[in-house]
From TrEMBL:
InterPro entries: Protohaem_IX_farnesylTrfase, UbiA_prenyltransferase. Its main location: membrane. The lineage of its organism: Bacteria, Pseudomonadati, Pseudomonadota, Alphaproteobacteria, Hyphomicrobiales. The keyword Transit peptide does not apply. GO terms for biological process: heme biosynthetic process. Pathway: Porphyrin-containing compound metabolism; heme O biosynthesis; heme O from protoheme: step 1/1. GO terms for molecular function: protoheme IX farnesyltransferase activity. This is Protoheme IX farnesyltransferase. Its EC number is 2.5.1.141. It is a multi-pass membrane protein. Pfam families: UbiA. The chain crosses the membrane at residues 49-65, 72-89, 109-130. It is found in: Cell membrane. It comes from Mesorhizobium alhagi CCNWXJ12-2.
């Protein structure tokens, strides 16, 4: 169980911080901090964000697939993962929208992590209460 929770955080972290780095690239460059958009370029960063998001989606469902969460969690995590991939796709497919899509992905990533763990917690509490 702990390995799956670690993997959720592991695959969530890069798209979360790279989305932030996309719309704060100028600040990072001015401070001399080598974030991915400044080192590898925006296009490469957007592709990596999508790749990690595609890996995150099935990992997010893994607690249900491995049997330590219910189907309610499975459905919620699948929907949340699909949303994450959708925002990552928008950040890749429509870079001309300024940084609006990167900002939206960053905001959604915060909601995603909170929601997936809140649903997992609620699922665990419900399972214990129902015996």
């Amino acid at each position: 169980e702990s390995v799956i929770l670690f993997l959720i955080i592991f695959f969530w972290t890069p798209p979360h911080f790279w989305a932030l780095a996309l719309f704060k690239a100028g600040d990072y460059a001015a401070a001399g901090i080598p974030m991915m958009p400044n080192v590898a370029g925006e296009a490469s960063t957007r592709k990596q964000i999508l790749a990690y998001s595609l890996l995150l989606a099935p990992v997010g469902v893994a607690p249900w697939l491995s049997g330590f969460a219910s189907g309610v969690y499975g459905l919620a995590s699948a929907a949340l993962g699909a949303g994450f991939v959708w925002y990552a796709w928008k950040a890749l497919a429509a870079p001309d929208a300024g940084m609006r899509n990167a900002k939206a992905l960053f905001a959604y990533s915060i909601v995603y992590l909170f929601a997936i763990f809140a649903v997992l917690l609620g699922d665990s509490i419900a399972a214990r209460a129902l015996g």
